[in-house]
Amino acid sequence: VQLVESGGGLVQPGGSLRLSCVASGFNFRTTAMSWARQTTGKGREWVSGIYSDGDKLYAESVEGRFTISRDNAKNMVYLQMNNLKPEDTAVYYCGASLTQDYWGQGTQVTVSS
User: Fold this and answer.
1) d(CA 53, CA 63)
2) Cα distance between residue 102 and residue 40, in whole Å
3) 5-11: long-range contacts at Cβ-Cβ below 8 A with a sequence spacing of 24 or more?
4) pLDDT in tens, 43-94
5) Nearest-5° angle of CA 74, CA 79, CA 39?
6) What b/e string do you get for 19-48 counting C-beta neighbours within 10 Å, with b at 16 or more?
């Protein structure tokens, strides 16, 4: 199983970023995927998930600002993040829910003026 995130960076408050994750090594089409984030000194926080049937879930802290999507033809999952706030600053991880949870190496998102 391999998950590789990209798309992080520095953005001003109110700005947008789109994170991408390319997956390999498992049946992507039938697997629930998720995004989580972690800041220094804190545990990993679940952000959003998308099931194989396309159903989506969001943490209350990002509801209405973030949108998760997937492209089964490309084995990709995305996280569109709008109206970013300083408290969204974290390392963002892509996850796959298999017999255990797998996570990528993460991509840093910094929201600062």
Assistant:
1) 20
2) 20
3) 5/92, 5/93, 5/94, 5/104, 5/105, 5/106, 5/107, 6/107, 7/107, 8/91, 8/92, 8/107, 8/108, 8/109, 8/110, 9/108, 9/109, 9/110, 10/110, 10/112, 11/84, 11/109, 11/110, 11/111
4) 899 999 999 999 999 999 999 999 999 999 999 999 999 999 999 999 999 9
5) 125
6) bbbbbeebebeebbbbbbbeeeeeeeeebb
108, two tokens: 């840093």
CA–CA dist 61, 64 (Å, integer)? 9
Closest CA to 70 of 97, 105, 43, 44: 97
